[in-house]
Amino acid sequence: MNGAESLVRTLVASGVEVCFTNPGTSEMHFVAALDKVDGMRAILGLFEGAVTGMADGYGRMADKPAATLLHLGPGLANGLANLHNARRAQTPLVNIVGDHATYHAQYDAPLASDIPGFARPVSGWVHSSPSAKTVAADGARAVQAARVAPGQIATLILPADTAWNDADGPAPALPVMEPQPVAGDMVDRVAKALKSGRKSAIIIRGLALRKRGLHAAGRIAAKTGARILCDTFAPRLERGAGIVAVERIPYFAEQIVDTFKDVEELILVCAKPPVSFFAYPGKPSWCTPESANIHYLAQAHEDGIAALEALADALGAPKDPIHVAELKKGDLPKGKLDQFSAGQIIAHFLPEGAVISDEAATSGIGSQIATATAPVHDHLSLTGGAIGQGLPLATGAAVACPDRKVVCLHGDGGAMYTLQALWTQAREKLDVVNVIFANRSYAILNIELARVGAGNPGPKALSMLDLHNPELNWVHLGQGMGVEATRVETAEEFADAYASAIKAKGPRVIEVML
Ligand SMILES: Cc1ncc(C[n+]2csc(CCOP(=O)(O)OP(=O)(O)O)c2C)c(N)n1
């Protein structure tokens, strides 16, 4: 067996079942090995930014890594923005990046580049395999590194001769470093702070943003009145009927300051203190009152769920939580189609267990409000601010969860970055409803333009934020990639198109004209 086959067998043995790929010449032995080994699904993406975003979506929903296969430095570099988002999401992910054969490096051939230099800023672990005899062991280490709690990106560089030379065989899977118990007397110290009667808020991130962790947080709230919050862009949040609802921290600095202005005790569960997304002249970056005490109940790599449960017990909290969302099915709106009527329709037909990939940007509030009382679902957001994540994220989530409906909510500007994901949805027959909010604008940047105090924008500046000339056509774009697509202009039309897309299986595009 060659090095490539030993690596693929090792990845499968380590629990990696899917490889999202866009390969080239230097990865051909890995590609060939995919046919020799059972248990690895290979999924082609037509741009690396789509490939890496899919691996992120898969990792967030499967709670284990997918592999990517990327073509040397340029292939990796094309995928960096969504690897940045995956790093921010703490998604477990293994990149396999092909490279020139080791002896070829000295000639500085056209595709030679500093691959570790591209990989390092997004990766928690980077290694270049020196030999076909070590690549299997390196693969096992890469998976182990990716799965270290809370999850990170591991990048394994695979020189072509490492792939084609003889190997000894696959390597066994390595143990996974699960989330660790919180340190020492942390629970007691936080319990004391919460018993003080001072105004408290708990910010939660990571695995504790699912039913069990939120249940414990809701018990703590019942006992202490502490508020429960999550990041504006939490990687994955379980929400809807039957789940303890959390407040989402707002986006703009002054709103964050307002949210936390009365907080005296700030408890962090695998989270960081809230800061402004950008700096703005004259506005704060740090959004917690200077006088607040900050407690790290659990660090990112620690077991936030167990910590919240121990805290609830230490406080003598009641068995039942407060803030449990109730199921409410609102009436269907009629007439004007805007983000609020669209949101009501999205919530009305949302099936239980759906996954929402949300990059709706300025069109997102309507659906977030309406789906708060929809059937239970998972909500995935744009974690690193690098737009063009939503479509691939939805695609990867659909691969991880074939029995769940995936709904992607996307601004038309951001969707243009990685629209190739639609082609993969069609090819793999993935069950994704893609709702594109067509405001023909980089609307958020119009708001930011005013906020940063850049002066009165002229026509040249405004045209940099406008997408009218020429008009995008998402019906043609979707159909051109094999996805059934429709355009809707009224609430009734959207309700019809969305309800039918939810009922059917397979990918759809609905262009919502705003
Ligand atoms: C990779 C990357 N490039 C550029 C930006 C800057 N940017 C932020 S929002 C935005 C436009 C988003 O437009 P759209 O998705 O249509 O949403 P809207 O603001 O119109 O609601 C741009 C270009 C970014 N955040 N990330």
Task: Please tell me about this protein's structure.
Helix 1 crosses helix 2, helix 9 crosses helix 12 (304-314) and helix 13 (339-348) packs parallel to helix 21. It is globular, with a radius of gyration of 24 Å. The chain starts with a helix and ends with a strand. With 514 residues, it is of the alpha/beta class. The chain contains 21 helices and 18 strands. The strands form 3 sheets. It has a 7-stranded mixed β-sheet with strand order 9-14-13-15-16-18-17, sandwiched between helices. It has a 6-stranded parallel β-sheet with strand order 2-1-3-4-6-5, with helices on both faces. Strands 10-8-7-11-12 form a 5-stranded parallel β-sheet. Strand 17 (484-488), helix 21 (491-503) and strand 18 (508-513) form a beta-alpha-beta unit. The longest helix has 15 residues, at 48-62. The relative contact order is 0.12. The structure holds thiamine diphosphate.
